[in-house]
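Newbie here. two chains, one complex. Structure please?
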Amino acid sequence: MNREKHISSAFDRDLETIQAQVVRMGGMVEAAISDAAAALESRDEELAEEVRRRDKGIDALEAQINEESARLIALRAPTATDLRMVLAVMKIAASLERVGDYAKNMAKRTHVLSQLPAIEGAGMALRRMSSAVDKMLQDALDSYIRRDADLAEDVRQRDLEVDQMYNALFREFLTHMMEDPRNITPCMHLHFIAKNVERMGDHATAIAEQVIYLVTGELPDDARPKSNSVPADPVPAPEGEG
Amino acid sequence: MNREKHISSAFDRDLETIQAQVVRMGGMVEAAISDAAAALESRDEELAEEVRRRDKGIDALEAQINEESARLIALRAPTATDLRMVLAVMKIAASLERVGDYAKNMAKRTHVLSQLPAIEGAGMALRRMSSAVDKMLQDALDSYIRRDADLAEDVRQRDLEVDQMYNALFREFLTHMMEDPRNITPCMHLHFIAKNVERMGDHATAIAEQVIYLVTGELPDDARPKSNSVPADPVPAPEGEG
């Protein structure tokens, strides 16, 4: 970290308090992802319900982080560099809140999917994808605490793998749907979940990019290159179409 | 608006400048929605490309609003009520940015969909849904500028209609997919777009809720009741399944 020493460290102490809350929020979100994925795979509606319930705590923590950040700005009137750090905290909290929402969403679909024909291997594939994202998120927050731009860059690169997992699943779901119309409804839901997990990866990447910005003063040139990508290529051409 | 008169109005002037930027951002986002929907319906790839290009301007404006808001907080050290207003501006800008992203997303799929069999009526239905959301967004921003909690409440209510439009489309796409496997791929893309338009409605609602919070000091109890809803009921039971 290349910022000047403070004469007073009151700002630093306040910021560290807020950062600790962000780390706690990260832990809650990570638990939400893995529990939602586990609930989906084992059709455990109780666990899914718990993930939904816990999301309120995540939202409340974000609100608290926002309030305390605003208070910190108002109270200490930080200079440009410090101000940037407080804004980064708020952005990271916002990303975590979105990821928590996606996990809640996944949990919501567990009930519907439990009543539909199972798609072989889908639960496991989604859990594997979720755990890759989970690891990205952990490392993104680690890179934030340690102001480690290299680790943050590594997180960014791994987002490509998650995108590839998504594209492979998308292809697989299409195949299942074309094979048997009874698979269409469950695959629609599973596809949504896969897309949401891919979006979680985008948010972990956004956190990593904030870290790179904090450390180097610049956002990566091709910021979030894969965000919202459309799987144009992997779509099998519909039979009999020109 | 029930906040005390300021002795100095420097804060108000600064805030009004930022608000004007939010309104401008709103205009850009509204244009993005309607152009993206028009491009999709008429398979106009050039217009879609323009929507994608213009999204950078929307993102840049959000960054500017964030910076100026932060500077305003640092410079004027606003009290609780004023601080809340600045934070609301930032939240509204963040919602607009997300809506812009969804519009860009819709535009991205125009190219893929242009090469797939057309689904009758889908383009028109999506344009109608988009224009309902567009109107919600306009009214949400209007309610913000006029601090009109009634109009904001009206916007919230209209989100239910958008959710219904989405559920109807979801059912329709499922029917098309079950009728003919060649419809599966285009319907997957169209379904995504429909879901994204529904999410735009959620963001317009979030803006309306910020307005209610600013005016009344409280968020509506059942904040965002329809956000991320899973269409459990409207899913036709797969044939031959128990």
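Moderator note: The two ends of chain A are 57 Å apart (CA to CA). DSSP finds six helices and no strands in chain A. Thread marked as resolved.
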